[in-house]
Specification:
about 5% strand, 3-stranded antiparallel sheet, DNA polymerase, domain 1, hpI Integrase, Chain A, 2 domains, elongated
């Protein structure tokens, strides 16, 4: 027998050989957390931390793009800088309007993966997109707003659109407004009491006359027993409207109105700010009403201060 020579080796020596064999044995490297498993964990983490539904949905959609490209079984640590670049470039080609948001989300998402020690570095932090000429946001006047609303049959959806137009509220803020947030006596709306705002700060927006009429009408339609915690814009079952439903309703009406594709629900917020600036309201006041954390964000509306610009240039007149 080929192994007969082992009879001449002592039991102690055999134990030593076995130990040395085990010590030198290299375990295969674990594949790591898959994109699908990480997605589930990350979404649960965001819900536990109390992130807004809109932001969770955005992150979930971004991760869906990721595993559509790489496959759900791929480990996140296998995504190197080159494959990450190719993925972003494919998004730039196929989803040019959303690629900036996708990349921004991925930088945040993969930073959490580094924190959890699933990966050693965030490859998406190394990717930059070529700068493009910044364009000013589109906005609507009362005429365009009225035209869009004329193609919407559900009164609550109309009122949500008007609410955003007259307060600058984001869609997620508008649909989460309850009667606890409305003070019709003082004519104030407290945005951020019962939902997270993007800046994580509560803000107060005064109620203008057209909005006051809308809110008083809706209040008379709401049962007294429901008033405290009820959503201002609730469905028949008492639940709030889903953001996707409101957004799609707006876009369908905009298409029927034959207005530009650059107009979407968020345009209501832009319109609130733009209309105020055009009427001479300070950028700093508009910043507070919008809830921006920095005036830099509000400065996109500064080009509308045409009268201030005219006064400045007129100083050169003789």
């Amino acid at each position: 027998m080929e192994l007969d020579f082992l009879k001449d080796i002592s039991e102690e020596s055999l134990r030593k050989l076995a130990f040395l064999f085990q010590a030198g044995k290299v375990e295969p490297e674990k594949a790591g957390v898959t994109i699908e498993d990480f997605k589930q964990e990350y979404i649960s983490h965001m819900k536990e931390k109390g992130y807004s539904n809109a932001y969770i949905t955005s992150s979930e959609f971004t991760l869906k793009k990721l595993f559509t490209y790489f496959g759900t079984a791929k480990a996140i640590k296998e995504i190197d800088i080159r494959s990450a670049e190719k993925f972003i470039y494919s998004l730039q080609k196929n989803a040019p309007r959303g690629v900036i948001n996708y990349l921004r989300n991925l930088k945040v998402i993969f930073s959490q993966a580094v924190k959890w020690e699933y990966i050693t570095e965030n490859v998406f932090n190394k990717i930059t997109l070529p700068k493009k000429q910044k364009t000013n946001p589109e906005f609507m006047g009362p005429t365009e707003l009225e035209l869009i609303c004329s193609f919407i049959t559900i009164q609550a959806i109309k009122d949500i659109i008007l609410f955003s137009f007259y307060t600058g509220a984001r869609l997620g803020e508008a649909i989460n407004i309850t009667w606890q947030d409305i003070d019709l006596t003082e004519r104030n709306i407290h945005i951020g009491r019962n939902c997270f705002t993007k800046s994580r700060k509560e803000r107060t927006v005064p109620i203008c006359n057209p909005l006051y009429e809308i809110l008083t009408r809706r209040k008379t339609e709401t049962k007294i027993i429901e008033l405290d915690a009820a959503y201002v814009f609730k469905q028949k079952d008492g639940d709030r409207y889903k953001p996707d439903f409101v957004s799609k309703s707006f876009c369908r009406a905009r298409r029927k109105a034959k207005l530009g594709e650059g107009i979407h629900f968020h345009t209501c917020r832009h319109s609130f700010a733009s209309n105020l600036v055009q009427k001479g309201v300070s950028i700093y006041t508009v910043k507070e009403l919008l809830g921006h954390s920095s005036v830099v964000m509000t400065e996109i509306y500064s080009h509308l201060q045409t009268e201030d610009l005219r006064k400045a240039v007129n100083l050169l007149n003789r």
